[in-house]
Amino acid sequence: MTEAEALENKQQQSTSSNWDVPPESAVEDAFDTTYKEKEGPKPPRIIVWRNVISMSLLHAGAVYGLFVIPSASRLTLLWTALCFFISALGVTAGAHRLWSHRSYKATLPLRIFLGVANSMAFQNDIFEWARDHRVHHKYSETDADPHNAVRGFFFAHIGWLLVRKHPDVIEKGRKLELTDLLADKVVMFQRKYYKLSVLLMCFFVPSFVPWYLWGESLWVAYFVPTLLRYTLVLNAAWLVNSAAHMWGNRPYDTNINPRENKFVTFSAIGEGFHNYHHTFPYDYAASEFGSKLNFTTCFIDFMCFLGLAKDRKRVSHEMVQARVQRTGDGSHRSG
Predict the structure, then answer these.
(1) Are 225 and 205 in contact (CB under 8 A)?
(2) What are the pLDDT digits (tens) for 175-225?
């Protein structure tokens, strides 16, 4: 074992020991990428026409919402932006960095806020989102990956939601240890009342607030801060699965597909440092550069300042440099 490998293993062990889950849990197991894809005939893709129709109507409504923007008041546009950031945080700071990776700890009030924000995002409940994401990390770019980027941009972006899951995704997902999620009362409460919470937070509240508080028309309130905002958040999250797995450099590990993608970093409020994230998935910042160009990391840092979060996991500079030298593509630029 080289000195760089020894340093990396030591850092990973010290970080893992702080996780508030059993050592054999899905959080740690999800990053063991020893899985080899089975050879043989591929099962046929089964189209879920209900999803095809609903997604088509949603995007048609979002396009119409673009033409409605000139009719919206400034307050409505500000409200739309606020709803975008709240719902995005429900995915990035909540379902992703907190519940999927356990990269920091959150108090009950913050967990409740992130649970509500996640319902506003409407991207499956926290339990299902985190389970699928752990499967994605463990079996990235194989048939067991829910949004396998090897199957093309469209599939990784939205196509995976329009067809039945590959049997490998279901099989491997059932084998993950998910007791940490099952033991979280916020996760289980949201899962139990998910449909109601989505109707309330994703559709009713974004439309009702501008209509009731400053007299915006319900038509504008429905198409701009509701449908358009929801569609933009969906596509921002999907870009992490598609664009950030296809285009960009790989300064940390050339042996994996995920890339560093600045456009995705901007649109997905900090989730585009994807080569780094897949190399060091337990780092709460999901980036070497902390809060730089990373709204989600800024939010988590602010929550720690307020005493609502703690125990942020971080990768040492020495470990990053060791990995860059060992497996990077030579494009790394510190700072």
Answers:
(1) no
(2) 998 999 999 999 999 999 999 999 999 999 999 999 999 999 999 999 999
Answer yes or no: is 294 within a domain: yes
**47: helix, strand or coil:** strand
CB proximity list for 198: less than 8 A, separation 6 or greater: 119, 122
Owning domain of residue 86? 44-327
Does residue 33 belong to any structural domain of this protein?
no
pLDDT, tens digit, for every residue of 208-219? 999 999 999 999
The dihedral through the CA atoms of 102, 105, 108, 111 has a sign that is negative
Indicate whether 72 pLDDT > 80.
yes
> Do residues 91 and 129 touch, judged by C-beta distance below 8 A?
yes
Report angle CA 88, 90, 91 to the nearest 5 degrees: 70
Residue closest to 272 by CA, chosen among 251, 299, 244: 244
User: Looking at per-residue confidence, does 62 or 35 come out higher?
Assistant: 62
Whole-angstrom distance, CA of residue 257 vs CA of residue 66: 34
Asked whether residue 83 is domain-assigned, the answer is: yes
* DSSP 8-state code for residue 273: B
- Rounded to an integer, what distance in angstroms lies between the CA atom of residue 326 and that of residue 258? 17
- Residue 163 per-residue DSSP state: B
Query: In sequence order, what E strands does 134-204 have?
Result: none
Six-digit token pair at 320? 């990053």
- List of residues 6+ apart from 182 with CB closer than 8 A: 127, 188
Residue 18 pLDDT > 80: no
Q: Which residues contact residue 187 at a Cβ distance below 8 angstroms, ignoring those fewer than 6 apart?
A: 99, 115, 125, 126, 127, 130, 181
What distances in angstroms separate CA 241 from CA 136, 235, 316, one per listed residue?
Answer: 10, 10, 26
Percent of the chain whose pLDDT exceeds 90: 84
- Residue 273 counted as domain residue: yes
CB atoms within 10 A of CB 50: 9
